[in-house]
Model the fold of this input.
Amino acid sequence: MTLLPPSSREVLLSIRDLEAKFTTDDGVVRAVDGVSFDVHRGEVFAIVGESGSGKSVTAMTILGLIPTVEVDRGEILWKGRDLLTLSEEERRKIRGGEIAMIFQDPLTALNPVHTVGRQIGEMARVHEGLGKKDAMTRAVEMLDLVGIPEARARAKMYPHEFSGGMRQRAMIAMAITCKPDLLIADEPTTALDVTVQAQVLEVLIGIKDEIDSGIILITHDLGVVAGLADQVMVMYAGRQVEMGTTEEIFYESRHPYTLGLLASLPRLDDEGDEPLVPITGAPPSLIRRPPGCAFHPRCRFAQVPGLCNEDVPALRLVAGDAHRSACHYAETLEGVTVDTLRASVKESELVTADADTGEADA
Amino acid sequence: MTTTDSPTGPATELQATEPGGGVSDVADLAAARPLRKDVWRRFKRNRLAMVGLALLILLVLTAIFADFIAPHSITDRDSTQFRKGPSGDHYFGTDTIGRDVFSRVVYGTRVSLKIGIAATTIALVIGLFLGAIAGFFGGLLDTLIMRVTDIFLAIPYIVLAVAIASVLGRSVNTVIFVLGFTGWLGICRIVRSSFLSLRQLEYVEAATALGYSRFRIMFRHILPNALQPIIVYGTIAVGSVILSEAALSFLGVGPVDPTPAWGLMVSDGKSLLAVSPHLLFFPGMAIFLTVLAFVFVGDGLRDALDPKLK
Done:
């Protein structure tokens, strides 16, 4: 194990200005719009955003898993090679062997008619050409590695005989069978009980250190991110809105959307009477994106009319070495924390409540 | 069709996990090996299916041990006995040229089972392959294959059989060929619809993400999940192929004498129904029971394989 911080190590994956779209009957959906980021070996890179923000599409595009997605622009550099220019056969070899994916719902992602051991072993058979017996031995080893007790007996069972947490462990075992350099975990704990989530995440991180890979963690659960991630990228409406280290994002956020996400969560030190501050409104349609900054209709700090509804803000360096934000007024957010946001909202909310009742009376 | 559900019955699963529920009873869990035992348990409960199965076993044994069961050769003529009714020497009587009907019916099981199984196998292979491709890839390929099946559906197989028999000559193999190459339409459609719905599932996407080839995904990951209706349809298809063979023989485009095909024997006996009904009755009965056996077993399998029907 190296003591160097992950960000100074080998760059595994480098995404440059990626643009991807779906064409639907209603129009073109810009699911990923100009996204760039690097993932280093040994690093947990979290992509955060609400449903439809493009985080899953970004990850799936890396593997080329969605046939209906068209990539318009950009590069996906994997160890220096652009994946988008490779043939289907070459990409297939990278999938599973070098980049593996862990799916959200382990029940539906495991094949019900094959035993768990056979499914894990199949990875070794396909990518390393192992025989049936060796593959089974490997599968048992892998199940053991992810902490499944009595792995030998468990390997002979079918997925429906496993509990939720064990299934997710089995999925992880399958993904790491060929010691991939990068693991993409798409909401790996969403389908699990809270009590099991922590165990599974622990396994995931332990494995990452064991095989010295990188992880792209896709989630909407900020709690998971805070505990595990090294780097965080926040996405909104297909664009990156903020990117930085976990500390920067959680304690010195420079984007109203990130601040909104943080303020909408209850905290352990809350006493019970603090209001939760929601982000008002709904995520925008990706077909008819609002002009200017896509977040401005829901933004508490927006200057409308003005820059916010006219100009699309670029992702730019706002602090430190690599803390980037896509907000025109990122600098003015310095000093705005979740606490000040909560306090300010408490007052303004009261005011609007009064105004509402006044109107109703009149 | 169960899709994301486990293919086994929920009942045994519950029994297996209830006592203890912890990690300690792994051995119990493993002992309660599901699928096969469970299917057999449900199949056993169905009386008709068991009758069908008994008949099937009897048929197969008859076909295998025909040499020992049949008292006479199928071509030997007893010149003293023409068109005689059942007797101690000739259990099912004799036909118009003095051959033993019982022996011919016994050897006929071989012909019928051979035609039934071979033609159904051909149909299954074609139907599976085309249906899998159509359902998995979709798009233009799907449209193309489905239009071809539509065209085949529009051709009456009997007309096709007459045409082919006149070119290739009448024989058992011609019947197999005709029935095999016209019988795949139903299977093709069943397989296609299963593949269409199964390819959307997450474990298929997962298999893609793990870098498996399309061929492997189609036949190792999707096909086993689509097998239930195929097994059922295939079983019933054997029965219906045997029936079609009888129809072809009856129309005079099936195998030729002296092949002991049941349909041919019925056909030969039809004009003598009033004088010697045994010529029609015994081979007809054999066809009837055989087809019934396959249909009963097929029905029983369908109920046993699909826990939702319970």
Summary: Chain A touches chain B at residues 63, 65, 92-97, 100-101, 103, 105, 107-114, 122-123, 126-127, 149-150, 153-154, 156-161, 171, 174-175 (CB under 8 Å). Chain A has two domains: 9-229, 248-361. Residues 338-361 of chain A form the longest helix (24 residues).
